[in-house]
Design goal:
By secondary structure, the chain is α/β, with parallel strands linked by helices. The chain has 6 helices and 6 strands. α5 links the parallel β4 and β5. The termini are close together. Bound molecules: flavin mononucleotide. Flavin mononucleotide binds next to α1 and β4.
């Protein structure tokens, strides 16, 4: 079975929750799945004052270990419609892996969170997907086999480009059941694809 890394950055925990759901879906396939975060770059005292969620259990990833996985699923909340500097800084350090072609042919995908429904979900996903394509990776999104994204009965994240949630202006909304199922579904599809390619 393939080795899958769910790599995320989360300030307030919404992406952390989605990352766990992506991993849960990937594990359904028998793949071996690790969840890791990228390093926080905001000074500890500022992070504390701004009520960052500082008790996240996932270990911090190193850039070099990206090469050890068959699939890498990247989750990050939006910052002004694109990925946060914490994730961009981490990926910017992967130039050496890119130069060696160490990530070519791996499977990847993206998931995100925004405060508002139209606050940049798709552009943020594409800022991650662009990076994955430059790495030479095969991108798997969230197809309409996740039917929950079609609903008009409630506010819902998720699009063909990847799983997502809407956190609310104060972070008061948590990922809904439909959004969590979307994240599981995307994780499962990515792991299934990697299992086929690398088993
Ligand atoms: C500097 C900054 C910029 C942000 N820009 C946006 C934005 O453009 N659109 C939006 O909907 N939310 C924006 N947000 C809200 C975050 O995306 C939101 O807090 C995040 O999705 C919650 O995910 P997390 O709990 O995993 O950190 C911004 C937050 C910060 C701190």
């Amino acid at each position: 079975m393939s080795k899958v890394l769910v790599l995320y950055y989360s300030t307030y925990g919404h992406i952390e929750t989605l990352a766990n759901a992506v991993a849960e879906g990937a594990r359904r396939t028998g793949a071996s799945v690790d969840i890791k975060r990228v390093p926080e770059t905001v000074p500890q005292d500022i992070a504390k004052n701004a009520h960052f969620k500082l008790d996240q259990a996932a270990p911090v990833a190193t850039v070099a270990e990206l090469a050890n996985y068959d699939a890498i699923v990247i989750g990050a909340p939006t910052r002004f419609g694109r990925m946060p500097s914490q994730m961009a800084s981490f990926l910017d350090q992967a130039g050496g892996l890119w130069a060696k072609g160490a990530l070519n042919g791996k499977v990847g995908g993206a998931f995100t969170s925004t405060a508002t429904q139209h606050g940049g979900q798709e552009t943020t996903l594409f800022s991650i997907i662009t990076n994955l394509l430059h790495f030479g990776m095969t991108v798997v999104g969230l197809p309409y086999s996740h039917q929950g994204q079609m609903t008009l009965d409630e506010i819902v994240g998720g699009s063909p480009y990847g799983a997502s949630t809407i956190a609310g202006g104060q972070g008061q909304r948590q990922p809904s059941q439909i959004e969590l199922e979307g994240a599981r579904h995307q994780g499962e599809l990515i792991a299934k694809t990697a299992n086929k390619l690398f088993d």
